[in-house]
Design brief:
The chain is an all-alpha fold. It has 15 helices and no strands. Helix 12 runs parallel beside helix 13.
């Protein structure tokens, strides 16, 4: 009886369909509660940014000089700032600038870095040498000061800030993609595609680049966090998004002059920047573990 029961279990195990890599990665990801909470927090923040005009209880630029530095109340849940503007409304509307800067800049850096890394890793030789020396040269320049110079010369509009951050932050992505392409370009499935006459472009973008997506996803999450921090730092120095348009960075900058009159003023944007960056970092670490093939294989 016990042998029959054992055999039936073995038959069940042999007939059970193997789990896909995507499903394994998802199961590993949802076990990380911190990562799940981080993902939920970021989804909520992007929904707030998307529907900011509807959610903001007041016009974020409406000035009320008779009600400056008001304490939190039913009328103004987070109080008012030095111009009598509702802080909650400015925090909500400011999320649009801060969150969108991170995403758009990340898309630009991922696009440039993926192209440079893929071309460098697949073509090799002279192309690899030129592109990697260019990458090394860009990485040798202090990143923050390079952005400061470009913004100071071309202006600190939203478009310029997004482009500058994206164009100056692709180097890490390029190195990651290059290493992944070098890993896959000589494997059997690539040689088979080359043997049947597939073009280099098809081999690269159809057969190799899709395998780099997990690494790109991890780099993207960390890149968004860095872009948000950089935009906040630029705004804090007065070179970021300019008032009256609200962003968490310029709210933090404006509040430093009124710290004694209203000590709560810098706390709201500061905490949102902190929680958003931490959420992206936790999410990136969890995705790196979940999408790592060796990490999965050792825990099947």
């Amino acid at each position: 009886m016990a042998q029959a029961q054992t055999l039936s279990r073995e038959e069940i195990e042999t007939k059970r369909a193997p789990r896909s890599l995507g499903r394994i990665a998802w199961q590993r990801f949802v076990r990380n509660r911190v990562a799940v909470l981080s993902a939920v927090f970021l989804i909520v923040m992007y929904l707030v940014a998307l529907f900011a005009p509807v959610l903001a209880p007041y016009d974020p630029n409406e000035v009320d000089i008779l009600n400056t530095h008001a304490r939190p109340s039913r009328e103004h849940l987070l109080g008012t700032d030095e111009s009598g503007r509702d802080v909650l409304s400015r925090v909500i509307v400011g999320s649009r600038a801060s969150m969108s800067v991170g995403v758009i800049a990340m898309v630009i850096s991922i696009a440039i870095g993926s192209l440079v890394g893929a071309a460098s890793g697949y073509l090799g030789r002279a192309v690899d040498s030129v592109l990697m020396r260019l990458t090394d040269g860009m990485m040798a320049i202090p990143y923050f000061f390079l952005v400061l110079i470009v913004v100071a010369v071309f202006g600190s509009s939203f478009r310029n800030i997004v482009i500058v951050i994206g164009v100056t932050s692709w180097m890490v992505v390029a190195r990651i993609v290059r290493s992944e392409v070098l890993r896959y370009r000589n494997l059997e499935f690539v040689q088979a595609a080359r043997a049947i006459g597939a073009s280099n472009a098809r081999i690269l973008f159809r057969h190799i680049v899709p395998h780099t997506v997990p690494s790109i996803i991890v780099a993207a999450t960390l890149g968004v966090a860095n872009a948000i921090l950089l935009e906040s730092a630029l705004s804090y120095l007065g070179l970021g998004i300019q008032p009256p348009q609200a962003s968490w960075g310029n709210m933090l900058s404006n509040s430093q002059a009124y710290l004694w009159e209203n000590p709560l003023l810098p706390i709201y944007p500061g905490l949102l920047i902190l929680f958003t960056v931490l959420a992206y970092n936790f999410l990136g670490d969890a995705l790196r573990d979940a999408l790592d093939p060796q990490y999965r294989e050792g825990n099947l």
